[in-house]
Amino acid sequence: MYGKLLAMKIFVLRIISLFLITAVSFSCSTNNSTQSPKENLTQTTRSPEKYRIVKHAMGTTKIIGKPQRIVVLTNEATDLVLALGIKPVGAVKSWSGDPYFDYIASDMAGVMVIGDEFQPNLEKIVILKPDLIIGSKIRQQQIYRRLAAIAPTVFSETIGVTWKDNLKLYAEALDRQQEAEKITNNWHQRVANFKAKLENRKVPEISLVRFAPGMTRVYYKKSFPGQIIEEVGLKRPETQNKNKFAEELGLESIPDLDADIMFYFTYDSGNNKGKKVELKWLQHPLWKTLKVIQNERAYQVNDVYWTTSGGVQSANKVLDDLYLYILEEQKYSN
């Protein structure tokens, strides 16, 4: 009898033990199954840092997020980057000004000068720790690899006449496409307004002349100002209606500069050599025989706006001059 009771107790204890083991195992399994989905959810919903591949003149460049520390290596890029609402941490010196063009001087206060377009200072660029470098193949092709080793680098093919394409390129690199679209729409609106008011007038032929140290140039359709003149619907004299950038002229070619209206601009590096060339031409007897001079329709305009800068801000200032001197309206861009 005692033996049967003992066997019964052992059997019951085994059943209880088995139940407890099963319960604990189930509890552990349940806990594991509730944690794993959370961990997996975290892993699948954690978005990787966004990046984009920007295609440019030197290939492609991977850019992560919105760059904050920008270095610009052309005067044009400085104009365009500022227009997009970004102040660079470093920039090349402007071709005139101390150290930047007057029209951007206040916006560029405190920005480190890193050399000029032809000789950027790589050591200074390294010190600035940029997360994006913007330059141009026509200026810095030889040092592209060294620049790209410092930070992601995007190059335009050229500068000047391509300012609209470059605006889009830089905006893509900076993740500022919406800002670029607003700038472009504003430009198209101003151009359309100018052309509409030009419809009721005789469309004048425009001559473009630039004086610089040691030379005088006529600017054709593929130049920065020439492209704007054509876009707004103005004409060029037959001698200047060429799909070229510019051409150097001698005094004997002064008759080729005649037109209904002339815009001339002078580049001077501070030693008055450009101004001396200008005076030499303006005081020449042939100059005074031009109808545009006799009709007092030759206007001196700002060289920085008309050719040296090459950005959208300066393009709008060229358009300001066209409104003023052709439509006799003051439609200032700012």
What does this structure look like?
It is built from twelve helices and twelve strands. It is an alpha/beta fold and 334 residues long. The protein has two domains: 51-175, Rossmann fold (3-Layer(aba) Sandwich); 195-325, Nitrogenase molybdenum iron protein domain (Rossmann fold, 3-Layer(aba) Sandwich), CATH 3.40.50. Strand 8 (206-212) and strand 9 form a beta hairpin. Helix 2 (75-83) packs across helix 6 (163-174), helix 6 runs antiparallel to helix 7 (177-198) and helix 7 packs parallel to helix 12 (312-325).
Short description:
By secondary structure, this protein is an alpha/beta fold. It contains 12 helices and 12 strands.
**Second rung of CATH, namely the architecture of the largest domain:** 3-Layer(aba) Sandwich
CATH class of the largest domain: Alpha Beta
The overall pLDDT average reads 88
* Count of the domains: 2
Helix content: 40-55%
Order of SSEs: HEEEHEEHEHHEHHEEHEEHHEHH
Q: Describe the strand arrangement of the main beta sheet, using strand numbers.
A: 5-4-3-6-7
> Which spans of ≥5 residues are poorly predicted at pLDDT below 50?
1-47
What fold name goes in the CATH topology slot of the largest domain? Rossmann fold
Q: How is the biggest beta sheet arranged?
A: 5 strands, parallel
Strands, count: 12
The CATH superfamily title of the largest domain = Nitrogenase molybdenum iron protein domain
The first-to-last residue Cα distance is 111 Å
Q: Per DSSP, what share of the residues sits in E-state strands of 2 or more residues? A: 15-25%
* Alpha plus pi helix count: 12
The rough form would be described as globular
